[in-house]
Design a protein that fits this description.
Heat Shock Protein 90, 5-stranded parallel sheet, 5-stranded mixed sheet, 12 helices, 12 strands, 54% helix, elongated
Length: 406
C-alpha cells in the first residue's frame, strides 16, 4: 500500500481518549479531530472500559494516573480480551521514572508520551501506530485469504486424486455391475420357465395328482436358492454403486463414528477388478469386534484404495503377487499394516514418495499426488503413516489412528 492509500484508509479512524483531567482531555480531543480522526473522549475510565466494544476504536490514548481504574489496570484487563490484543495503545503520562515506563509496557502499551506533550509529536506517534495497525490487519486478512485458498486447492487436489483413481477402477466397476445383472437375468429366465411348468401342472392336477406333487416339491426346493441368488445380485449391485458414489462424492463430509472394518470391506469392493486384473491374493486379517474411530470414512477408504491399487500396479509382473492387510488394535489406537511382495522402492527415493507430484510410475500412469494426499488425510485424523522396505522383499505401510475414546 502507498501513502495515499493508507491516508484514505485512515480517514475518520476512531481514536478513544481516556483522561480524568477535563482540560487535557478536551485539548487532545480537539487535536485528534484536527488530524482528521474521530475522537471519542471519556473522563471516567470505568465508563470507557465498559463501552469500548461499543466505540470499537482503532487506537487508544490513555492516561496513566486515574481514579477507580488507572491506566495500568485498564490496559492490563484490555489485553486479556482477544479482540483488543492488537489495539494500538499510547500512554500519556507526566511520570518519567523508569519503573513507571516499564510498568506501562508490561501492561501492554505500544508507545508513550510524557506530559506536557508536543502536539506534533503526538500526531506522528499516533499516525505511526494507526499505520502499523492497518498494515497488521491487512496482513491478517491476506493470511486468512491465502489459508482459505490453500484449503480450497487442497480439497480440489484430494478430489482430483479420487477421480484419477476412479478412472483406473471404472472399467472394473462396470464389469462388476454387469456380472450380477447377467446373473439376475439368467435366474429370471429360469423362473419364467418354472412358472410355465407350474401353470401347466396346476391345470392338470386332477389328471395326474401324484406326478404333480413330485414336481411341485422339486420346484419348491429350487425356488428359494433362485430367489436368494437374485437378492444376492441386487445386494452386490447396491453395494458397488453405493461405494462408488460415496468415494467420488465431492462435498465436504463431517467426521462421524464408524467401524474401520466397514471401510476395509468397501475398499475391497472398489478394488475388486484391480485385484483380479493382476491376480493379487489378499490376506485380510481383522478383529471380530468393531474397531470404532471418529473420522471421515470416505477419506479413510480413499487412503486404503490408493495403497491397494498402488500395490496391485507394482506387483502385476510378479509370479505370485500377494498383499497382507491386517487391522489390529491396542489400548488407544488402531493399526493398519499393508505388506506386499512386490519390488519395493529404492532406498534413495523412499523418503520422496510423500512429496507432491513425485511418482515411480510411467508417464501418464499416475499424478504423483496419491501418497501426498494419503499422508495429509491420515495426519488430519491425528494419525501417522510410515513406509519401509522389508528384508524378504516388498513394501510395508503402517497406519496408526486413534481409537474412539469411551
Amino acid at each position: 500500500m502507498d501513502k495515499n492509500e493508507i491516508s484514505n484508509l485512515l480517514k475518520n479512524a476512531r481514536v478513544m481518549i481516556v483522561d480524568d483531567d477535563i482540560t487535557t482531555l478536551t485539548l487532545i480531543e480537539r487535536f485528534v479531530k484536527k488530524l482528521g480522526y474521530a475522537g471519542i473522549a471519556f473522563q471516567d475510565s470505568q465508563d470507557a472500559f465498559a463501552r469500548i466494544d461499543e466505540v470499537n476504536p482503532d487506537a487508544l490514548l490513555l492516561d496513566y494516573l486515574m481514579p477507580n481504574l488507572d491506566g495500568y489496570e485498564f490496559c492490563l484487563q484490555l489485553r486479556q480480551q482477544k479482540k483488543w490484543q492488537n489495539l494500538p495503545v499510547i500512554f500519556i503520562t507526566a511520570m518519567e521514572t523508569t519503573d513507571t515506563l516499564v510498568r506501562v509496557f508490561e501492561a501492554g502499551a505500544n508507545d508513550y508520551i510524557i506530559k506536557p506533550f508536543n502536539p506534533r509529536e503526538l500526531g506522528v506517534r499516533l499516525r505511526n501506530m494507526l499505520e502499523l495497525s492497518l498494515i497488521r490487519r491487512k496482513l491478517d486478512e491476506f493470511g486468512r485469504t491465502m489459508q482459505q485458498q490453500v484449503e480450497e486447492r487442497t480439497h480440489q487436489l484430494v478430489h482430483a486424486d479420487r477421480l484419477a483413481t476412479l478412472g483406473t477402477l471404472s472399467a472394473g466397476i462396470a464389469h462388476e455391475i454387469n456380472n450380477p445383472t447377467t446373473f439376475i437375468s439368467s435366474n429370471l429366465q429360469t423362473l419364467e420357465l418354472f412358472w410355465a411348468t407350474v401353470e401347466k401342472l396346476l391345470l392338470s392336477v386332477e389328471d395326474n395328482e401324484g406326478d404333480f406333487t413330485r414336481k411341485v416339491e422339486f420346484i419348491r426346493n429350487e425356488m428359494p436358492p433362485l430367489i436368494a441368488g437374485m437378492k444376492n445380485g441386487v445386494t452386490r449391485i447396491h453395494r458397488i454403486t453405493n461405494s462408488l458414489k460415496t468415494y467420488s462424492r465431492k462435498e465436504k463430509i463431517e467426521k462421524a463414528v464408524f467401524d474401520l472394518r466397514d471401510a476395509t470391506t468397501n475398499t475391497m469392493e472398489l478394488c475388486r477388478n484391480a485385484i483380479k486384473k493382476c491376480g493379487l491374493n489378499i490376506d485380510r486379517i481383522e478383529p471380530e469386534t468393531p474397531v470404532m474411530i471418529d473420522g471421515d470414512q470416505q477419506q479413510i477408504e480413499q487412503v486404503l484404495v490408493n495403497l491397494v491399487v498402488n500395490a496391485a500396479d507394482a506387483m502385476c509382473d510378479c509370479e505370485t503377487p500377494s498383499l497382507s492387510l491386517t487391522l489390529d488394535t491396542s489400548a488407544s489406537e488402531a493399526t493398519y499394516t499393508l505388506t506386499d511382495n512386490g519390488p519395493g522402492v529404492r532406498e534413495a527415493i523412499l523418503d520422496k514418495i510423500w512429496d507432491p507430484f513425485f511418482t515411480t510410475k510411467a508417464v501418464g500412469k499416475g499424478t504423483g499426488l496419491g501418497l501426498s494426499i494419503v499422508r495429509s488425510i491420515i495426519e488430519n485424523h491425528d494419525g501417522s503413516i510410515v513406509a519401509d522396505n522389508i528384508e524378504s522383499g516388498g513394501l510395508e505401510f503402517i497406519i496408526r489412528l486413534p481409537l474412539l475414546k469411551e
